[in-house]
Amino acid sequence: MSRIALGVDVGGTKVLALAVGEDGTVFDSERVETPHVAERPAGDAAADAVMSVVTTLTQRNHWSLRDVVVGVGLPGMMSREGVLVFAPNLPTASGADLAAALRERSPEMRVLCENDADCAAVAEHRWGAARGHDDVVMVTLGTGVGGGIISGGELVRGRSGFAGEIGHMVVDAHGPRCPCGGRGCWERYASGGGVARLAREAAVAGRLPTLVRQYAGDADAVRGEDVTRAAAEGLPEALAVVDEVGWWLALGIANLAAILDCGVFVIGGGLSEASALLLPAAQRHLSSLVEGGSARPPLLVIPSKFGERSGALGAAALATQRLT
Amino acid sequence: MSRIALGVDVGGTKVLALAVGEDGTVFDSERVETPHVAERPAGDAAADAVMSVVTTLTQRNHWSLRDVVVGVGLPGMMSREGVLVFAPNLPTASGADLAAALRERSPEMRVLCENDADCAAVAEHRWGAARGHDDVVMVTLGTGVGGGIISGGELVRGRSGFAGEIGHMVVDAHGPRCPCGGRGCWERYASGGGVARLAREAAVAGRLPTLVRQYAGDADAVRGEDVTRAAAEGLPEALAVVDEVGWWLALGIANLAAILDCGVFVIGGGLSEASALLLPAAQRHLSSLVEGGSARPPLLVIPSKFGERSGALGAAALATQRLT
User: Fold this and answer.
1) Contact between A169 and B259 using a beta-carbon 8 Å cutoff
2) How far does B221 lie from chain A, in Å, by closest CA?
3) Helix runs in B127-205, H state only
4) Which of A37, A104, B138, B316 lies 20 to 30 Å from A130, alpha-carbon distance?
């Protein structure tokens, strides 16, 4: 039993739990919908949801809560003490001390909380797409852009545990407003939200005539999914917009390569469904965007191996590493 | 004798060597002008200059080359193997295998080469302004912007040794061209070159009328030094331009804080002479620029303790650490 860790990934829509062996094998899984209950204390409902999937897995497998270690990945800025200090995609848990809430529910259970993209980075580095590489950035393209950084084989945590907030790197100082309060953050371009914005901009500018016709001439109605779907079907005007998104993705990757000299960029998250087109576009633009490109070994931009499971897998890996 | 290391900093204008004890005490120093001799093989003249200062120091102190360790800081992308692969400010040494050239000149001498800003980061972290902090970025503001990153108490080197090229982080995708081939790199704004550019822009736009009058109405003649000097004397129009440079400095620092969650930013380099005005301006703008600013402990922007000596000091520290 000491060889099994539970990894729980609390996302904006679902809570996924995996029972994971030391070699990354998944023995069991469980999922529930993420509760968004505003009238209870911050994080209360999220902690209940985590306990629910953990209890289901332990009872089903006849494990004691005393014997398992639990890692929890959360979407936001996680402090080293387990407080979710800033979580725009899980507002009802923002500010909550999740580690304390879980210890209250089960004092005998050993648990740690970490940012979800940091967890994903650990999973892809240990068992996945970035195995064998010491300097890696995990880039999760969802509504926003999350990140986890491996440097010299170790997760970069930073002073308070907040490292990896790569989506809020400003790449266009005069660009559009970001919900974080800034302007021109990378995630305004290279994310699901960014594709939606760039798609509408292209539609309004007359660069997506076929798609606009499908909405009876209403350019504002064109969505990001319309563009990624039409691009997958080979529509040139949609491919041009995907190429633009790929350019912005490459620009941020080039910045991270200059700062960190990471050689491998693993792309995950919901938008990575469009990765068959997006990643080659980014790879194509990258060499001309990174400083001293010709003096560097090639940079790899590759898809996540574990997809939506990477966060929970990495949370389990971190629990094993830090709690046993 | 085993307690003394020699640190050599090869800059664009001078080569500075220090004899440094294990606690950072400087026992002796020597400097020569940096040779820029294009007709000899790349790096040949630079290697001779390093050997010259090293020989002077060892002979003057009756040390044997066999007994000293030597660290050399160089201005450019240094590979882990000691090759200066890309050095815009020392073009006659660009591409040279400096480590090999030095071993040829003195096979018994133990030597390592590292990027100069990385060296400076190590010195400020171990003995200087950032002592006691584990997550630190050294920012050197010269003609361009150099950087060295300490994460979890360790120098971030990256896959090939190129980490810390923070000046070529793009902060304004549609901004001015950079000699690196990119557009809108941070160093186009927050550096000596950046001040010169922003000063000329302000002069041409009519925002520096007093300084333009001093050049008989020739706005293009206004230099960065004119602005920093006039700002130090309290001229409001010049202070406004320094504030603008401070805003750009803060923007890049905010990006690095989001990515790395470093709490301390040490500012060095030639432009840091203007730091009495520039650093408070950056500090003032910073909290509104960094994501989740209110959830973070304060970020410190502080001047280098060792100034122009930080590179040589850090080179000595690294030599002690890696070679003994």
Assistant:
1) yes
2) 27
3) 192-204
4) B138
